[in-house]
Specification:
There is one protein chain. By secondary structure, the chain is an alpha/beta fold. It has a domain of 199 residues: Rossmann fold. It is built from 20 helices and 14 strands. The strands form three sheets. The chain has a six-stranded mixed sheet with strand order 4-5-13-10-11-12, sandwiched between helices. The chain has a five-stranded parallel sheet with strand order 9-6-7-8-14, sandwiched between helices. The protein is globular. The two termini are 36 Å apart. Bound molecules: pyridoxal-5'-phosphate. The site of pyridoxal-5'-phosphate (PLP) has 15 residues, from α12.
């Protein structure tokens, strides 16, 4: 399978190159050249398949020219070493819980798969790959954990000093092994600028092999489609609609990929917070990116969603086709908190603010569409957003795999936001 750039100004590349490069030189996004339907036999027997078996069948046609079957099997079983249960919340409504991985958010799935693909591709290289990533919190920890202990790959994380939460900082700075955390005296934007400058620096790129593990890497998107099939396997015989709490629309786009590969999904709900660019587009046909606004579901505070052009490609840039499959709704913080409280009072289920937006979108959809089963993606464990959740419903338990970081020793290297200092640090590694 070759991967083309959505801007079509550069030649298509192999999966291997698309993963290593991350972004094509024309600043488009990589997409598979063709998306074929999987065999009917696979769908007929979905119920008897494991999550890893599903992953292998789905990923093989997309990557098999670059990763042999046995290696791919290993990569997938290492990636998905935790469950993704569809948990019944109430009649007709299920939460697909994507937070059972090491950092308690769905980004674990994509980050772990990408890390293992990169490790495989760098095996025969004489040079180690160095992943540099700027983070304002959660993405950095999913990426860092994804690469922890992975061979042939070093990770350097840049985070803004004093601007991430206590537990987030501990998650970034206590891993050790092949992970180094740089505490930058500056903002998140400074961290991003340093990373960008490093990629543009000729001398640095001659000395070492840098890569980005960016969230729009195609190797983060592909594994996110696995769990749509897995939901159908768990809820077989039911017509499913998925509500996806969205920011950069990677998760939703992965679901569209699953549908295009033959999974009989009835429909999608694009659920957003006040950053409602895509719901507005679905209503009017007009796509108008803006600056983002802050909300309590802050991982979805995106004003210019990076996967929008992939979504467009899947539908041949036809708004009429897009709106046949996707409905969009947006919700305020007040509505989100009300939903968290109502669901907890009624069922005992604890939503995090992102899942709550997904729940609200689903509820709205189901009020107009009967005879389908609704699944919303629960993208993070509620304890990751403890302050908001506790304000609404009282105390939440922190799972041991998050709580343990509190007692570990922080190890970071403080650095100014000056590129020359960052560069000489990298050159000296
Ligand atoms: C990243 C994230 C989202 C948004 O996912 P996209 O793929 O960017 O749309 C939603 N919820 C949580 C908890 C996230 O971390």
């Amino acid at each position: 399978m070759q991967y083309y750039s959505t801007k079509r100004e550069v030649a298509p590349v192999s999966f291997r190159e698309a993963v290593i490069k991350g972004l094509p030189d024309d600043n488009g996004l990589y997409m598979p050249e063709s998306i074929h339907k999987l065999p009917q036999e696979f769908f007929n027997n979905l119920r008897s398949k494991s999550l890893a078996e599903i992953g292998l069948t789905v990923a093989a046609p997309l990557v098999s020219e670059d990763i042999p079957q046995a290696e791919l099997e290993q990569i997938i079983s290492d990636t998905l070493n935790f469950d993704i249960p569809a948990n019944k919340v109430k009649d007709n409504i299920y939460a697909l819980e994507l937070f059972h991985g090491p950092t308690l958010a769905f980004k674990d799935v994509g980050a772990r798969f990408l890390a293992r693909c990169l490790s495989y591709f760098s095996k025969d290289e004489s040079q180690k790959v160095t992943v540099i990533v700027a983070t304002s919190g959660d993405t950095g920890s999913a990426v860092a954990h994804g690469f922890l202990g992975v061979e042939n790959v070093d990770v350097v994380i840049l985070y803004p000093k004093g601007k991430v939460s206590y537990l987030q900082e501990k998650q970034l700075t206590t891993l050790g092994q092949n992970i180094t955390a740089l505490e930058i005296e500056g903002t998140f934007d400074d961290c991003q600028r340093l990373v960008k400058s490093a990629f543009l620096d000729k001398e640095l790129n001659q000395k070492m092999k840098l890569t980005s593990a960016n969230s729009i890497n195609i190797a983060r998107l592909i594994p996110q489609s696995f769990y749509y099939y897995w939901a159908q396997a768990q809820l077989s015989g039911q017509d499913l609609v998925f509500s996806v709490p969205s920011g950069n629309y990677g998760n939703l786009t992965a679901g569209l990929l699953a549908k295009k590969m033959g999974l009989a999904i009835k429909g999608f709900v694009a659920s957003s917070n006040a950053n409602d660019i895509v719901p507005k587009y679905l209503k009017t046909g007009n796509y108008a990116p803006t600056a983002s606004v802050s909300t309590i579901s802050n991982a979805m505070d995106v004003g210019n969603p990076s996967n929008f052009y992939r979504l467009q490609e899947i539908y041949g840039h036809s708004w009429d086709n897009v709106i046949k499959d996707i409905k969009g709704y947006s919700f305020t913080d007040a509505e989100t908190k009300e939903a968290m409280k109502a669901v907890h009072d009624e069922t005992g289920y604890v939503l995090d603010p992102h899942g709550a937006v997904g729940y609200l979108g689903l509820q709205k959809y189901l009020s107009n569409n009967k005879n389908v089963t609704g699944v919303f993606l629960e993208t993070a464990h509620p304890s990751k957003f403890k302050d908001t959740v506790e304000e609404v419903i009282g105390t939440v338990d922190i799972p041991e795999r998050l709580a343990k970081y509190a007692s570990l020793e922080k190890k970071s290297k403080e650095m100014s936001a000056d590129f020359n200092e960052f560069k000489s640090y990298l050159m000296g590694r």
